[in-house]
Amino acid sequence: MNAPVNIRMIRENRLLELTWKDGPQTILPFRKVRQECPCAMCVDEFTGRRILDPETVPENLDLAEASLAGNYALRVRWSDDHDSGLFTWVHLRRIGEQMSADTPSPVDPPNEATDSA
Q1: Domains, in order of start, for the chain
Q2: Rounded Cα distance, 17 and 117, in Å
């Protein structure tokens, strides 16, 4: 997968914004990205079982520092001092797709018939 064409940290809202070449934009809360950290401290390397309890990630988590890891991932240091995860573009995009799938689409209000009599 190609790297995003634009990466922006919106610190005041604690959001990571990724714009992809093929059009869609992925907007991820910092906390959600940290909860999905793929490193060996957060996910068992042999079983794939998540070790990190997502609820232990602070609500007010901030992104302390971010840098590119080659052309395939983002290296992040969080305000909780966790810094061992590399977030590949594939992984970040998948988080965004899962969030979109989990979000119910808005329902249009029912059309109310009006009496014209």
Answers
A1: 6-102 (3.30.2020.30)
A2: 53
